[in-house]
Amino acid sequence: MLLWLVNNWTVVDPLLRSCTEKLNPKVEVLLLDCRTMRGTDISTLDPRTVFAAAKIVELAAMRSTISSHPYLYNDKWAAQFGKTMKQHVKQMNGTAGTCFLFAIGDSTEHAPDEGGNEALADFVMKIAPYYTRDLLLIKEASEEQLRQQQDAERQKAAKEMELARKRAEITARVEAARREAASGQS
User: Fold this and answer.
1) What's the whole-number average pLDDT of the chain?
2) Dist. CA 147–CA 149, nearest whole Å
3) SS3 of the chain
């Protein structure tokens, strides 16, 4: 999910900003549904679609929101998760920016209580909480890692070019020496 965010950052960043401009980070979170059909990679999700369906949730309504349609998280789990997140968001008091709750894992079509469908034994839905500060740090670290990889690749390519130049130079000297030796024998 984080890789998906970083890979789509040029699209995600303005969407994050527009979704959170009216949000109060001290008492509200942004809930994004990034769950996919089994066997479908998260990279197939369109950030615009995900953010268009994003929902601003007040801390007091978190439990009821994540346990109702379309999220359908187990009510007991949602109660504990909501309590924990409420405490954490209040403790942060907006200092880390907006809290984003990313719903990840299987889409609800695979849920045990969906009528007519065979529930998957390893059905998993989770929520990954991140603050704006976390996402920016991850993006910056990812960009730095990418820069280092690109620098290493450039250095490797430069070394290979230098070696190729030296081989060509040595080959040219050997050929010149052969020609000189051949002309001296005649």
Assistant:
1) 86
2) 5
3) CHHHHHHCHHHHHHHHHHHHCCCCCCCEEEEEECCECCCCCHHHCCHHHHHHCCEEEEHHHHHHHHHCCCCCCCHHHHHHHHHHHHHHHHHHCCCCCCEEEEEEEECHHHCCCCCCCCCCCCCCEEEEEEEHHHHHHHHHHHHHHHHHHHHHHHHHHHHHHHHHHHHHHHHHHHHHHHHHHHHHHC
End-to-end CA distance of the chain: 74
User: Which residues pair with residue 33 across a beta bridge?
Assistant: 103
pTM: 0.70
pLDDT of residue 95: 93
pLDDT over 70 (residue 122): no
Q: Using only C-alpha atoms, what is the Rg of the chain? A: 28
pLDDT of residue 120: 57
Q: What is the pLDDT of residue 2?
A: 77
